[in-house]
Design goal:
By secondary structure, the protein is an alpha+beta fold. It is about 75% helix and about 5% strand. The chain has a domain of about 110 residues. Helix 4 packs across helix 5. It is elongated and about 155 Å long.
């Protein structure tokens, strides 16, 4: 199809493309105007100290402001926040979700939370509670996560302590590594004495000390696996203790940010104002008219497709029968045409003769 074909279709169905958007926009406009006046309140969230800054902040780095805004916009209309706001303000959750809106201020981390309602007394409280609950939720989640991590680290430390206590009870040794060092030193001294006695020719004394040396060596062989086990337990205890200390620091930082995100300091609520009817019509009627235009285009396309759809066998047979009947009628008319022509010829001859007689009569009449 060429452009001229499309233009021809549009001209032929132009009434659909005009009527459907007008109906859609008119219906929505009527509903908006019939709903009575609406009121709007705006709560501004300004928390620059919580965005960017050191890497320990939840929203740090160059992408911190955009991440904060994206998370806030997604959270403010989530079911959790909407249900919390509905429970606190006694406004039904569907009305809260339908009236809430968020708008970032430029490219900053400041956000405006707006709520529209036909009830003036509801607009301000809902907007303020929604902004406050959302900012709490964003930073409370980090505190909750840090608390869980600290609890897990503390549990690991407790397990390490329990294993050390079980080791003490099983071996009766508090510091087996120190005992091993002492016995190793004693063994070295005995071996030195044995060597000195042998050098001095005191074989009896050397033999007596040799038995003591063998006993000390046996004690050391028993201590070796205990020292290894003890050292692994101590290393594990140090590892989980360091992890607990690090997680405790993260928890302290998360709690500090949560305290800085106090809605009393970062959320400011403006005055409730009446929404202009024109603004309501433009905000809802315009999109409705646009949707109606797309619907009208779809209807036009559907009509064109149905008009050009392939014919079924029944339709082809009916058309063939119609053509056959038309040809039969044409043959009948052609068969009757000679008689008609003959009658027409006779009448023509009679008319010519009459005309000739009249002319002759006129010529025979004497002129005065």
């Amino acid at each position: 199809m060429e452009i001229a074909d499309y233009l021809s279709i549009v001209r032929k169905r132009l009434w659909i493309l005009v009527l459907v958007p007008l109906l859609a926009g008119g219906i929505v406009t009527g509903l908006v105007l019939a709903g009575g006046p609406r009121y709007a309140a705006t709560a501004t969230v300004a928390a620059p100290a919580l965005v960017g800054g050191p890497s320990s902040n939840q929203y740090s780095g160059s992408n911190g402001p955009s991440a904060f805004v994206a998370n806030f916009v997604a959270a403010v209309t989530s079911s959790r926040i909407v249900n919390q706001v509905a429970a606190q303000t006694k406004v039904p959750a569907p009305e809260v979700a339908a009236g809430l809106g968020t708008t970032p201020i430029g490219g900053s981390s400041l956000i405006q939370v707006t709520y529209q309602s036909p009830v003036r007394a509801q607009a301000g409280p809902v907007a303020g509670v929604a902004a406050s609950d959302t900012i709490r939720f964003l930073f409370q989640s980090q505190v909750t996560l840090a608390e869980r991590t600290v609890a897990e680290a503390a549990k690991a430390v407790a397990e390490a302590d329990a294993k050390l206590v079980a080791f003490y009870r099983a071996t009766g040794m508090v510091l087996p590594d120190k005992a091993y060092e002492i016995k190793s030193q004693q063994l070295a001294n005995l071996q030195q004495q044995v060597a000195q006695n042998q050098a001095a020719g005191l074989s009896g004394a050397a033999s007596a000390l040799a038995a003591t040396v063998r006993a000390k060596q046996a004690e050391l062989r028993i201590l070796v696996p205990r020292v290894v086990t003890y050292q692994s337990l101590v290393d594990r205890k140090q590892q989980v203790t360091q992890q607990l200390s690090l997680q405790q620091q993260n928890l302290d930082q998360a709690r500090a940010q949560y305290s800085a995100a106090d809605p009393a300091t970062v959320v400011s609520l403006g005055e409730t104002e009446r929404v202009s009817p024109l603004a309501q019509v433009l905000r809802k009627g315009g999109p409705a008219a646009g949707a109606g235009l797309f619907l009208g285009a779809g209807i036009v396309l559907l009509l064109e497709v149905l008009g050009r759809r392939p014919r079924t066998g029944v339709e082809v047979q009916a058309e063939a029968g119609g053509r056959a009947g038309g040809r039969a009628g044409l043959r009948a008319r052609r068969a009757a045409r000679p008689e008609l022509e003959a009658g027409t010829t006779g009448r023509s001859k009679e008319s010519a003769a009459s005309t000739a007689g009249q002319v002759a009569g006129d010529s025979s009449t004497p002129r005065p």
